[in-house]
């Protein structure tokens, strides 16, 4: 039924799993014996984080933040609100933000600066999707799954008005869904 609202599938489930394995292997190599803290930015990061961590073969800790910048619309408001911060002291620790998508970059730029002020050993970003055409600030992921064109994407954590996150793939939402 949800497929009726999808213009096309951009990245299928198998491609997501394979890319998560690749990224997990990179993180395993880079963070062996460093016990990094993976910080999932809720809600969109959950499917990717769940898939990614299955493929990391070293100790990791999990933390979650709730951050909002879209406020129910289709474009970032430019205001990043931290609704729930992490509970762990990160001073001297390695932190890896896990994101579903980097679009404008505002959210991650603000979060990275906030965390750098807390004196961690390092702060890195892994994202499933990078949409560089949408960027309005200077920020790059350290680990990127897929670079995509500037289309309205849903699925595998990406949403429109809190819907479509449960799709097992990433698809382009039909324009009439979000313009009516």
TrEMBL record:
Q: Name one GO cellular component term.
A: cytosol
Per the record, the domain of life is: Bacteria
**Biological process (GO) annotations?**
GMP salvage; guanine salvage; hypoxanthine metabolic process; IMP salvage; purine ribonucleoside salvage
Its EC number(s):
2.4.2.8
Keywords on record = Cytoplasm, Glycosyltransferase, Magnesium, Metal-binding, Nucleotide-binding, Purine salvage, Transferase
**Names of required cofactors:** Mg(2+)
| Residue ranges occupied by any Phosphoribosyltransferase domain in the UniProt entry | 13-160
**Pathway of action:** Purine metabolism; GMP biosynthesis via salvage pathway; GMP from guanine: step 1/1; Purine metabolism; IMP biosynthesis via salvage pathway; IMP from hypoxanthine: step 1/1
Pfam families tied to this protein: Pribosyltran
> Quick check: keyword Nucleus in the entry?
no
Indicate the principal place this protein occupies in or around the cell.
cytoplasm
**Which reaction is catalysed here?**
IMP + diphosphate = hypoxanthine + 5-phospho-alpha-D-ribose 1-diphosphate; GMP + diphosphate = guanine + 5-phospho-alpha-D-ribose 1-diphosphate
The record's subcellular location field reads:
Cytoplasm
- UniProt xrefs under InterPro entries: HGPRT (IPR050408), Hxn_phspho_trans (IPR005904), PRTase-like (IPR029057), PRTase_dom (IPR000836)
GO MF terms here are:
guanine phosphoribosyltransferase activity; hypoxanthine phosphoribosyltransferase activity; magnesium ion binding; nucleotide binding
* Role played: Purine salvage pathway enzyme that catalyzes the transfer of the ribosyl-5-phosphate group from 5-phospho-alpha-D-ribose 1-diphosphate (PRPP) to the N9 position of the 6-oxopurines hypoxanthine and guanine to form the corresponding ribonucleotides IMP (inosine 5'-monophosphate) and GMP (guanosine 5'-monophosphate), with the release of PPi.
Q: Which family does it belong to?
A: Belongs to the purine/pyrimidine phosphoribosyltransferase family.
Name of the protein described by the UniProt record: Hypoxanthine phosphoribosyltransferase
């Amino acid at each position: 039924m949800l497929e009726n609202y999808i213009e096309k599938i951009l990245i299928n489930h198998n491609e997501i799993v394979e890319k998560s394995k690749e990224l997990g292997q990179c993180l395993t190599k880079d963070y062996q014996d460093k016990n990094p803290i993976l910080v999932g930015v809720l809600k969109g990061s959950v499917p990717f984080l769940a898939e990614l961590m299955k493929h990391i073969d070293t100790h990791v800790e999990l933390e979650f933040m709730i951050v909002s910048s879209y406020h129910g619309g289709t474009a970032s408001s430019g205001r990043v609100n931290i609704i729930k911060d992490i509970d762990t002291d990160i001073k001297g620790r390695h932190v890896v933000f896990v994101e579903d998508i980097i679009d404008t970059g505002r959210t991650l730029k603000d979060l990275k600066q906030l965390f750098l002020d807390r004196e961690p050993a390092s702060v890195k970003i892994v994202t499933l999707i990078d949409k560089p055409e949408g960027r309005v600030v200077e920020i790059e992921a350290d680990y990127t799954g897929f670079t995509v064109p500037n289309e309205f994407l849903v699925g595998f954590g990406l949403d429109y008005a809190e819907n479509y996150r449960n799709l097992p793939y990433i698809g382009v939402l039909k324009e009439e869904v979000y313009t009516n």
